[in-house]
């Protein structure tokens, strides 16, 4: 049975407890459910189905059990491993101290934006299908990379650090 990772938009310990999320996914019929970190990452096993179908099941289960749901992006564990193994950041010279993040979309942007797109300390470097690769140098108090992503792709996205994706792919 395939292993999947659900990446939920907008989850924090203040608005969803991880045991409750795990119970939602189990209630949706998923097995071997595991939450990762406290920011809306859920690994689970399910019969092979389309990602949109799995996302709808998870969102419906959250709505039923929690009274709200979170926008859900599903990728297979194999997809995440291939993304990490391909490491598109290697093609770029990143500034010292740069953080790498991946933004997940429902669909590939059409047409794709001209790249790179840079604002202050953040650069959208690559788009590969439904994933966007951004590097930024952290500046306290300025979410410049999130502003750049939202301006370019809208709010129906979710973003994870490169390190978080490694943990998700290993779950």
UniProtKB/TrEMBL annotation:
Taxonomic superkingdom: Bacteria
Pfam families on file: DUF1697 (PF08002)
UniProt name for this protein: DUF1697 domain-containing protein
Organism: Luteimonas lutimaris
